[in-house]
């Protein structure tokens, strides 16, 4: 077992803003008050959902926010979109002080929140068109943008249906369409692909990528889908407990675990813990159903594969793979809930 308290903070998280930064966050603090206790029960603690966040998002980049449930991602983006006021700290978006002037955010940001209730009563087409009109497009332009985005996201066949009567994935896709109408210099999308099938997800990623390529749009993206996000993100901030615990390019983050390989062992049924070589791996393995995942130095991985394929454990083994680490491994390695926030803990 090895540990290393290494975190990358290239181009972000430092106190000095880059001249290319369109969004500069410094010292952001937001605390939710403790919930009122039921009679006789002790009051729960207040929750510091943003705990001193520094962040620079650069012009034209697709910037991802990753982190476990409750890490503070939505709280952060709601402060970046003027919907929530921090107790301390500053948010500068394209030269506008959003803590003092939260009303200016709507002119600068196309925001997709986690909830869609405001658009639910409208049809897919009307939601997109109305959003365009609210963002200042004239009627002809709003209709043209509506048609283009519905085609782009494959929504034309259900354009006339009410959003509230759609399936979860369709509803989410309709909300993404509305968020993309009426050009804004920055898009803030909170888990845009939740509930979508692979084709819809791919359409969303390419629509986002296209806006960056064609219009230089800056995109801040909250997502749990690290494997897909890896292909579109320029940089990623990993959050935990209201803090940014790492920030770099996907490849820079992957370099944190680059010396390792990932071993996946899938057991036919229960792992054969009576085999000493298998029992010795139990503490280091991340178990999910019949699958054990281990991150190991290459020579350790070779020894594990030899042990489970050559000895008595082989009869219990259904499948095994040996791969280089992905961004998901970095995310899990840094996700402080399970392994500590003070850096990488290698299995
Ligand atoms: N309105 C609220 N009142 C009190 N606590 C809240 C409120 N909204 C969020 N929290 C708490 O603040 C913390 C951060 O929540 P937040 O929604 O920002 O996390 P998240 O990273 O977006 O999570 P998820 O991935 O589940 O969407 C959590 O502990 C959450 O329970």
Automatic annotation (TrEMBL):
SUPFAM superfamilies: P-loop containing nucleoside triphosphate hydrolases
Record GO biological process: response to antibiotic
Cellular localisation: Cell membrane
Molecular functions per Gene Ontology: ATP binding; ATP hydrolysis activity
Membrane topology annotation: Peripheral membrane protein
Alphabetized UniProt keyword annotations: Antibiotic resistance, ATP-binding, Nucleotide-binding, Transport
InterPro entries in alphabetical order: AAA+_ATPase, ABC_transporter-like_ATP-bd, ABC_transporter-like_CS, ABC_transporter_ATP-binding, P-loop_NTPase
Main location: membrane
Highest taxon of the lineage: Bacteria
Record-annotated ABC transporter domain positions: 29-266
One Gene Ontology CC term in the entry: plasma membrane
PANTHER family: ABC TRANSPORTER ATP-BINDING PROTEIN, DOXORUBICIN RESISTANCE ATP-BINDING PROTEIN DRRA
Designated name of the protein: ABC-2 type transport system ATP-binding protein
UniProt organism field: Streptomyces zagrosensis
């Amino acid at each position: 077992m090895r540990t290393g308290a290494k975190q990358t903070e290239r181009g972000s998280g430092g106190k000095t803003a880059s001249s290319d930064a369109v969004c500069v966050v410094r010292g952001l603090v937001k605390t939710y008050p403790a919930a009122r206790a039921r009679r006789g029960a002790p009051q729960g603690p207040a929750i510091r959902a943003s705990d001193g966040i520094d962040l620079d998002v650069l012009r034209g980049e697709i910037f991802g926010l990753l982190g476990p449930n409750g890490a503070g991602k939505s709280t952060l983006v709601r402060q970046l979109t003027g919907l929530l006021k921090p107790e301390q700290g500053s948010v500068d978006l394209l030269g506008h002080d959003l803590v003092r002037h939260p009303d200016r955010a709507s002119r600068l940001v196309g925001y997709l929140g986690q909830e869609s209730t405001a658009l639910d009563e409208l049809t897919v087409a009307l939601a997109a068109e109305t959003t365009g009109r609210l963002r200042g497009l004239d009627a002809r332009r709003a209709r043209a943008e509506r048609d283009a985005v519905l085609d782009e996201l494959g929504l034309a066949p259900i354009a006339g249906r009410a959003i509230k009567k759609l399936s979860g994935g369709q509803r989410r896709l309709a909300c993404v369409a509305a968020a993309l109408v009426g050009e804004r210099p920055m898009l803030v999308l909170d888990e845009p692909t939740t509930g979508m099938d692979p084709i819809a997800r791919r359409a969303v990623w390419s629509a986002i990528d296209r806006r960056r390529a064609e219009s230089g749009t800056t995109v801040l993206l909250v997502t749990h889908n690290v494997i897909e996000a890896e292909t579109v993100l320029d940089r990623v901030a990993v959050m935990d407990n209201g803090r940014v615990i790492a920030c770099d390019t996907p490849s820079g983050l992957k370099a944190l675990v680059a010396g390792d390989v990932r071993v996946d062992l899938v057991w036919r049924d229960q792992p054969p813990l009576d085999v000493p070589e298998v029992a010795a791996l139990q503490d280091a393995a991340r178990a999910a159903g019949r699958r054990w995942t281990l991150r190991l130095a290459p020579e350790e991985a070779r020894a594990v594969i030899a042990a489970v394929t050559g000895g008595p454990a082989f009869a219990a083994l259904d499948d095994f793979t040996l791969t280089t680490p992905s961004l998901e491994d970095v995310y899990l390695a840094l996700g402080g809930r399970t392994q500590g926030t003070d850096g990488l803990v290698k299995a």
